[in-house]
Every structure is written in C-alpha cells, then in structure tokens.
Amino acid sequence: MKKTWQTALVVGASSGIGAALVKRLAAQGCRVAAVARRSDELENVAVGANAAGGGGEVLSYVSDVDQPQLVSELFATITGDLGGLDLVIYAAGVMHPVQFEEFDTAKDLQMLRTNLLGAVAWLNPAAQRFGRLKKGTIVGIGSVAGDRGRSGSPVYNTSKAGLHTYLEALRNRVGRYGVKVVTIKPGFVDTAMTKGLPGLFWLISADRAAEIILKKARKGAVTAYVPARWRLVMLIIRSMPSFIFRRLKV
Amino acid sequence: MLSADRLEWVAGWGEVLGGAGFVFRPSTLEGIREVFGKARAGGVPVALRGAGCSYGDAALRAESIVLDLSRMDRILSWDSESGIIDVEPGVTLRRLWRFVLGDGWWPPVVTGTMETSVGGCLGMNVHGKNNWARGTFGEHCLEFDLMTTDGELRTVSRADDPETFNAVVGSFGLLGVITRVRLRMKKIASGLVEAKAVSAPDLETLLRLTDEAKDQWEYVVGWIDAFPRGRKLGRGLLHFARHLEPEEDAEPAQTLRAEAQDLPEDVFMMPKSAMWRLIKPFTNRLGMKWINRLKYLSGATLGEGAVYRQTFAEFSFLLDYVPNWKRIYRPGGLIQHQSFVPFDQAEAVFRRQLEACQKARQPSFLGVLKRHRPDDFLMGHGLDGFSLALDFPVIAGRQERLWQLVRTMAEDVVDAGGRFYAAKDAAVPGELYRASFREGQVDRLLALKAELDPQDRLRTALGDRLLEAWQ
Q1: Are B8 and A80 a contacting pair at CB < 8 A?
Q2: Among candidates B92, B54, B59, which has minimal Cα distance to B73?
Q3: What is the pTM of this model?
Q4: What's the ipTM?
C-alpha cells in the first residue's frame, strides 16, 4: 500500500536537500511545516512551493536549531497548526571546511550543535509523540561521512556518526510500536555545502536526492544510501582495516 | 501548552478518520470544569466523546482536547415504579438495560450495539429499529443537565423549555456537555420478543413489506443484498419483532434476568471473539457478493416466514454478535452512508444509490433499511420515509472515488428532500447537510452556538465539516 503523508515537518528547510524535500512534499499534496534559521531563504522556499500548486501548503517557521530550548513550544505550535503530524525530517546540517592540521573548537562545536544536538532536540519530541500514537515516520539526513572517522573532517564525521547511532537507538526504542525511523546517508549532493569541494563524483541534485529519500521513507527503510551505489562503496570502506584506512589521505 | 503525556490516537469507530488528541477522562463535574480551564488557558478546542461509537468524525478532533466522558458512568437515581432513571452521560446502553431489566423495564430506543453511551445517544439523537413507533432517543428524555464551556450548569427540561431542549438534543455535542440525563424507560412484561423473518425479491417489495409491517410490529429492520442488478436489485430480508404480552411469557422472572439476555458465546461453534478473523478473508467484492447471496438465499428458503422468540438483546444488538467485526475492514477501515428519503421518493433514490455503487465498483458490503417518522428536533434527521444505510470498505488509493460516490448519492438525497445521519457519516459535505435542513434551522443552531459557546470552544471534526460550510 502506497504511503501518503498528509502532514510533515522539515527542519533545515531553507536550502539544499531540506528545501527540495519541502517542495516535493508540497507538490504531493502534503501540508508542510518548514523550519529554518534564515528567514529570507525560507520564505523563498515556501512561496515557491506554494506557488507551484500540487495541493499542498507550506507553513514557515523561523527558528535556529542552535536554540533547543525553543523546540518544545514550537513543536506543539506546529502540530496544532498542521492539524497533525505524520512525518518529521531532520535535514539541518553544516560542514565547515577544516584544514588538515586545523583544530578549531568553535567550528567543531557548531557542527555538533547543528548536525547532532539540534537533531536530538527536534527528534526527541517527535519520537515521544509517534511512540505514544503508535504511528509516524522519522527521517534523519546523515551522511556517508559518518561511516568512518576520516582525518579530513573529524567532527563532521563524528556528528553524522552520532546522528546515525541516535537514529538507530530511536528506532530500537519506538520501532516496536510501528514507528518508522529512517537513516539516510547521502553521498555527494549538489548543494551549497558541497560547492567548490574538490574530488566530487556521483554528484546528484538535491531534488533527485529528495526523490530517493521520500521513496525510501515511504518504504520504511532502516538505512538508505543515496544514491544506492554508495552502499557498496561504504561497505568496502567500512571493511577496510584501520591500519590501512589511517594511511589514506581522506 | 498541553502535556504530550495526554496524547492518544483518537479514531472514529470505522477507523478511517482520526487524529492525535489530548485526552482527558474526568469523573466529576469539577473535573470537566478543570478541563475547560486548561482549554481556555491553552487556547485549545475541546471535542466531546462518549463511547466513541460514531463511525466517522463526530467524536474527535486532531490536536485538540478530547473530553472523554466514559468515566462519568454512574446511575444517579432509579424509580422502578415510574421507570424514570437519572444517569451520567458515560453510562452505556449495556449498563442501562442490564440495570433496569430486572424491574421489568427496557430502554425504549436502542442502537444496534449496546456499547454506545447515553450522552452520545442524546448528543447525536440516535434511533433504533423502532423509529417509526417510538421516535428517536431524545423523545424519551425528560430533562438533562448541560454544562457550558464557562463551567455553568443548567437544567434543560422538555416540559419547561422545549425549544432549547429540542435544539440541544442532536446538536452533535457542539453546544455544551450533557452531564446528567433523565430518561423514561419502557415497561415490558417479558425479556423476549416475538420475531418474524420474511424475504423480499426486489426493492419495491422490500419497501412495501417494511411499510406494511410498521403498524403491526414495533421493530422493523431490513437487510439488503446490495450486489444483484436488474430485477433482483434491492432484494433482502426483513425482520420484525414485537414485545410479548403479559400472558405470553410463562416465566417472565426468568427472561427478565440480565443473564438470560447474554448473547451466545459461540457462533457456528466458533468463539465469537474469533469470528472476524474467519470473515476477513472474504472481505472483498467477490467474497462479500457470495456471503450476501448465501444469506439471502438461506433466508428466502430455510427462514422464510419463520416466527420465533428471541431475547431483547439478541434481537436488538445484532452488531454485538461478532465482537470487533470492524476489523474485517482493516487496514483501510469502513464508512457508512445513511440517507433518509421521503416515502414517495425512497424507491427511486435507493435504486439510483444501489446502481451508482455498482457502477462505481464500490458495492456496499452491508445494507440496512428502516422506516422512520418525523421529529421535532432542531437538527433532527427524522422524516416520513425510509433510510438506507450502506457500509463501504475504504481501500487505499480509492478513497477519493468513494467520497465522490457518497457526494453524488448525497446530492440526490437532498434533491429528493432527504436527510443524513451525522452519527454514522464521515463524508457528506457540510453544504449538503445545510441544504437538507429547513429554512432557518441552521441559523438557529448557529445562534445558539454563539450564545452558549461564544468562544467556539466546543469543536469536532464533524462540527468543522458542518459549521465551516454553514457560516
């Protein structure tokens, strides 16, 4: 049976995969609460999605994932405004460029706050609600980068690995009630985050990534690589012995 | 902000419509006032819920407080001489009949299941198989206490204020909380009824026999096989019943025991709790076509003209024979469309309805026919005519077509001067409800709503569907 969502919440909706998800969900007739820090970009996404038709509606909420103390009230407001909640996607993420020998604690903590702590702040109430109602889908946008600790970006990797583990734990906690918790691990996606990065390959558009993500979420996948060919690559990389992996300049 | 601890999935009985609600189950008047206080503080609407037996969206609203009155279930007073009983709204019909039966009384109007609550029955002004003879549930209520959302309690009596009484009964739980109900029971001489079964080979005969039976039998209900076309369209079985006279039951003390009314534990040698699992594999067009066909043929041959005695409970609560029978419709659930059509138009309208269902490849799996009479309630559904209730499975991907089918049928009903039954409905648009009422009825309800609930605190999904189209 094809799963349709009537209401969805996307955190990190002003650009990249998050914005593409908002547009796709709205085009499918879903009422979407789009949350992001940057109000102008968020408004553009909402106006564009609403103008595109498709029967859905985008409601925008300006909020910084760096302020977890605001989440509880905003989450309640959003569920009230939407008249329900079927799907929650945490798509907020940041990857600060880090030099090979650089140890910048401010940058690192920022990545942890946005990529991991913000996810905990938003997905905890979602998991609590869905677990209680015994239905709902949670999607977390992780990364193939979270599968190994690379010397090139230790904390970005850590933040995504932490997110993967957190999502797995949520799945173990509320999956028994029928709640779907889907871990998405995209490879290279053509977004502002990857702009100008060297050595990109298998680059896909944010819209294509969003299409695959929603398809996987509908199926209730546990972990989905986007696109799927990354699964094999990451299997090899994850299987690589540590003494070899540490010699790679990645 | 309301605590997520209160969140529950609150669905209509048909399991099609539902939403997350903050559920409160107070057991006292003060508890209800506290819930209204929370609603005011949080700016949250309140949806009233009794036993949750309404098929559609009458007892729920997403992201709202759901004031579940099932714990307000005390019997407050009982006079076995006059048959007058005062109960709280959460008392179910099961509890009510079991309580009064031993003194030789029975609720004059009951639903097809005994799990409905008195508050819900009054709020939706339900009817039974004896609507022609006894009217609706509200006609047997003498007075009730109504708590408005400001916490004020008033007694509304049929004798003292019939206009308000007739407006609040059947007002879909949108004007206030009914916190006490005074009902008059019906005196009976036996716990048994005499029943008769006859068959009708087509719709015209079914309607004629129903009408002819109404003056001899208190209870008249028809079952329709909705699958056949052409000459056999609308064929079905009729069941009539009447109370036994005092001399007809040799052992009234025995039959008036509640235990004597208990429904059988097994059906066809199977525990009845497992019956729905047996039926589920046949819950599809082909399976249901054959089940309906076999039911008709067995009734028309083996059961034709049979006169037999049954307990009240056996005759009245057919829906309780197979507990959780709605599960046969999972995962999509079911909706019911019940339309009331004036006497002279009924055959034509019902014929078009059955044909429309067949043409849309959405035949009803269960059809039920009843005879009705008009009533004085502001939002009443009664008229001099018939009603046809059609159950439909909801199948993923086909819901929109089903809703369109209901809309098409409902437009025909309105054109014929007919009505709808909100207790069962899930899909008739609000504007068609409006068109089904007489001039001024809807405006009167809206005026009362503004007077009794000026902050529009009491809302349900059904209420939104209706009132958004009415304002």
Answers
A1: no
A2: B92
A3: 0.92
A4: 0.85
